């Protein structure tokens, strides 16, 4: 094991305080030297440096302060301390590695005899292994893949003397490390992850924490790689009976993800890190985002870092080797819900005690007067109204005549059955308890809403409808299974109110190549779904958006902007030759959020990206000419869009008109909903820190009890 000192001015080149807390370390090529950017996560400051010792090197991974580097020309490989600039050499690579597909697992600091390095490549069926004391890398083929079409996904970690790697077939391989050093493979296969994605793409990380192994799935939306959900699973069992269990708590630790690597550290307020949270960077055209996902309330937020460069850069977390404890304010620990109001299933908020000189008989008010009062109350007061007394509880049968607009519903904590609702016009948040979501053992997704009802799916099979304000639940049969689709429906909708005899739920499934469509229907009283299969002549590539009931037919939006139509009466499916698609060809993956909705008797399509600096495009279908026409004014209408659902309403006030509300907020103590103004062609408010709940849907509150 050899070492030397490089960069005698190394410490002077590093930012002040570097090495005392986790830092993000980003490298990218410049013309003369290797440029670096250091991010202090405590105050989100960026400091740029030129480190000559790193010129022409590629960073493959790190362990603590040690970076694993490789020379691009000579393939020379070594560890280098980013603090002392000491070097420890390891064997040179036998072939030119594909660095962008590489993931490194390191068992111990490189200056110890316990250090073993395993190099795993995504989309390969072999791995490399060596140590600083060995003279060469060993290439180890995995015979497990001989009869399979899948390969390694890239994520890896060493835990309890086993190397864990994830495959593209959603299986996990547990390979004993000691035989692996000798070139022998002894492994156990852990069952499929059975991922239930909102969309089809996700990144995978393996993280060791407090003697346990965790799997983190970061769900992305299409080619744009917009982060829309984060899921955590914990390894349980032993030997041949290991499995992954979904969890919502990682204890007093925080996870740090970058590249394909993951690391955990205890919460430390002096570092600016918060317990039960996951931190990770992502590159976008607009720059580098630092994400934080809080498992406690299932909220994702990000800060767009100023003057950060985007592109194929190497980004690693560099950690202190020793803990440093100081008393400093945790900048992440500010409450986002200072105005929230706690409730149970029948009351939202806390009633102030009213002092009265003499008792009054509220229960003696005429029912006609109660109905008049009820019709003039806000939605929140309507929920409080029945709890005043027994007579007032009859108000639950009243029809509320006040103006209602969509609220954003999301599920922060399934253990306690909490549902949160955000009123975008009044900037207030409320909490409601629902027994229907208490203790769900699998991922819950809010898929569709209409008339106050929300369609909820749990995992790959369960599906039910919930009115969170009345507490009513309608259970549906398990979703049908298809050989090429392992999750519930690409689109969901229903016809009429659940109390109507015309009530029908429809589920749409599309084959990824666009050649097959399956539409399932269910009516109350039926024990299973009725299936219709279509093999159309024209392929249809759908967006991740629900179908829209328009003039008695269900319209689906394709990725080119084309329309597919299902007629429930005739039981037919057609891809329309008109309108002319907005895009000339089919994107390989969705690179925009695409929405289809009815607006005042017209079909509207909305296309938006994940970047807040880019405009939203809105088109209206000219039904006489059957062409999409670009529109720049919604008049007195307001749109609400999430990842799957869309709602259009007539604005209750002029100041809210001509806006498109999305599912994001300003990341401050006082929540302000993010919206796009078509008049100004920009988002408001102008913010750097963005907060977004990951399991959410826009819904219109409905207090009417279904009988």
Automatic annotation (TrEMBL):
Residues 359-408 form the F-box domain. It comes from Rhynchospora pubera. It holds the Pfam family Beta-prop_KIB1-4. This is F-box protein family-like. The lineage of its organism: Eukaryota, Viridiplantae, Streptophyta, Embryophyta, Tracheophyta. PANTHER family: OS08G0448300 PROTEIN (PTHR33127:SF97), TRANSMEMBRANE PROTEIN (PTHR33127). Coiled coil: none annotated. SUPFAM superfamilies: F-box domain (SSF81383), Galactose oxidase, central domain (SSF50965). It comes from the Eukaryota. InterPro entries: F-box-like_dom_sf (IPR036047), F-box_dom (IPR001810), Gal_Oxase/kelch_b-propeller (IPR011043), KIB1-4_b-propeller (IPR005174).
């Amino acid at each position: 094991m050899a070492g030397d000192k490089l960069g005698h001015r190394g410490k002077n080149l590093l930012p002040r305080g570097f090495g005392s807390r986790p830092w993000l370390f980003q490298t990218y090529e410049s013309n003369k030297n290797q440029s670096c950017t250091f991010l202090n996560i405590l105050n989100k400051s960026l400091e740029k440096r030129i480190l000559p010792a790193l010129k022409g090197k590629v960073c493959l991974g790190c362990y603590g302060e040690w970076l694993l580097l490789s020379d691009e020309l000579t393939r020379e490989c070594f560890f280098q301390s980013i603090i002392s600039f000491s070097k420890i050499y390891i064997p040179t690579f036998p072939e030119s590695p594909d660095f962008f597909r590489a993931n490194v697992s390191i068992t111990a600091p490189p200056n110890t005899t316990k250090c073993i390095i395993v190099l795993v490549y995504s989309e390969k069926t072999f791995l490399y292994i060596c140590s600083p004391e060995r003279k060469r890398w060993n290439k180890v083929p995995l015979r497990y893949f001989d009869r399979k079409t899948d390969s390694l996904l890239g994520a890896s970690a060493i835990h309890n003397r086993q190397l864990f790697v994830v495959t593209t077939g959603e299986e996990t391989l547990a390979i004993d490390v000691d035989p692996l050093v000798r070139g022998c493979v002894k492994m156990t296969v852990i069952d499929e992850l059975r991922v239930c994605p909102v969309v089809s793409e996700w990144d995978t990380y393996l993280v060791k924490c407090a003697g346990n192994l965790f799997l983190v799935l970061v769900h992305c939306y299409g080619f744009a790689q917009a982060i829309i959900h984060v899921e955590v699973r914990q390894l349980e069992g032993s030997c041949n009976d290991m499995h992954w269990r979904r969890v919502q708590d990682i204890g007093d630790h925080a996870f740090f993800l970058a590249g394909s690597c993951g690391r955990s550290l205890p919460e430390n307020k002096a570092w600016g890190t918060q317990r039960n949270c996951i931190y990770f960077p992502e590159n976008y055209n607009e720059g580098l985002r630092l994400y934080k996902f809080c498992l406690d309330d299932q909220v994702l937020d990000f800060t767009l870092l100023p003057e950060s460069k985007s592109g194929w850069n190497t980004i690693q977390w560099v950690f202190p080797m020793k803990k440093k404890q100081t008393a400093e304010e945790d900048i992440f620990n500010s409450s986002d819900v200072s105005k929230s109001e706690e409730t149970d299933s029948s009351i939202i908020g806390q009633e102030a005690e009213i002092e009265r000189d003499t008792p009054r008989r509220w229960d003696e008010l005429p029912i006609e007067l109660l109905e008049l009062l009820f019709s003039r109350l806000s939605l929140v007061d309507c929920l409080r109204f029945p709890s005043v007394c027994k007579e007032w509880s009859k108000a639950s049968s009243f029809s509320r005549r006040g103006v209602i607009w969509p609220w954003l519903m999301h599920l922060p904590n399934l253990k306690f059955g909490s549902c949160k609702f955000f009123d975008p016009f009044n900037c207030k948040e409320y909490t409601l308890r629902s027994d229907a979501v208490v203790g769900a053992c699998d991922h819950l997704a809010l898929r569709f809403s209409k008339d106050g009802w929300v369609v909820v799916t749990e995992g790959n099979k369960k599906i039910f409808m919930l009115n969170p304000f009345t507490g009513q639940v309608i259970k549906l049969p398990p979703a049908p299974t298809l050989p090429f689709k392992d999750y519930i429906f690409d689109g969901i909708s229903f016809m009429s109110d659940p109390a109507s005899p015309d009530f029908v739920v429809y589920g749409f499934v599309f084959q990824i190549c666009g050649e097959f469509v399956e539409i399932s229907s269910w009516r109350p009283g039926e024990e299973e779904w009725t299936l219709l299969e279509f093999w159309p002549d024209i392929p249809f590539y759908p967006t991740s958006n629900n179908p829209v009931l328009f003039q008695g037919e269900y319209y689906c939006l394709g990725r080119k902007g084309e329309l597919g139509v299902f007629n429930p009466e005739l039981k037919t499916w057609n891809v329309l030759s008109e309108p002319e698609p907005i895009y000339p060809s089919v994107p390989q993956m969705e690179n925009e959020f695409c929405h289809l909705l009815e607006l005042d008797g017209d079909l509207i399509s909305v296309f938006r990206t994940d970047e807040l600096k880019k405009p939203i495009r809105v088109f209206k279908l000219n039904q006489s000419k059957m062409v999409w026409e670009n529109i720049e004014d919604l008049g007195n209408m307001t749109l609400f869009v999430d990842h799957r659902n869309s709602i259009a309403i007539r604005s209750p006030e002029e100041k809210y008109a001509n806006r498109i509300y999305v599912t994001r907020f300003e990341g401050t103590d006082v929540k302000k909903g993010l919206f796009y103004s078509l008049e100004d062609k920009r988002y408001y408010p102008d913010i750097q820190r963005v907060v977004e709940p990951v399991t959410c849907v826009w819904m219109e509150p409905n207090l009417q009890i279904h009988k």
